[in-house]
Known about the structure:
CATH superfamily: Aldolase class I
Radius of gyration: 17 Å
Number of domains: 1
Shape: globular
Amino acid sequence: MARRRIIAGNWKMNKTPSEAVELCKTLKDLVKNDAVDVVYCVPAIDIVPVAETIKGTNVELGAENFYIEDKGAFTGEISAPMLKDAGVKYIIIGHSERRDIFGENDILINAKVKKAFEAGLSPILCCGESLALRKAGTFKEWIKRQITWDLDGVTADQVKKLVIAYEPIWAIGTGETATADQAEEVCKLIRDLIAEMYDSATAEEVRIQYGGSMNAGNAAELLSKPNIDGGLIGGASLKEDFGKIVNA
Length: 248
């Protein structure tokens, strides 16, 4: 089956609200492609102005983080229902920066995946290995463990609506990029694992992105691989080059 390509920008902690609006205006005509799902995952403070700016365009709105409770005494946090009400469709879960800097473990990430589905959000679930795990040759076991834990208790129907982003940590913001063959190897591994955990029909539907320094120069080669259905783009999503990736 032909899976619909999804190119998502992860803005990380960049762009003030006014800068975010300007970037959306700059990218508006560059990211037009009705054959591709285009998503801007933006900082929480940018969600409302970006939602207003992308109205009537082909771009969907994503968020970068949330907490698992709907409301309450959780100072500084934001809930899934709040995001949904603000127009958010996609939510990044389990990004390596959340895991490494903020200590999010697979138990919390699993709870976030379930809460996102409960709230009507589409998770972009991240997985990936460090350079040490890559060099040790144990990265495949690591990624399998992450996916198995993160999807515990998640149904096949939910997984079909899931986006999984493979992000080799050693290739994020370093200028290093996995080769197209390395990226394809792991994306195929993930798809095969989903087939084992669920069934082949579910594995065929789930969309798998590559998320390690995809840019205008390497996007076409990466996206030509049969198990790479899109990209989770960091630094390049903040530039006009993002349009070239969408249309690669």
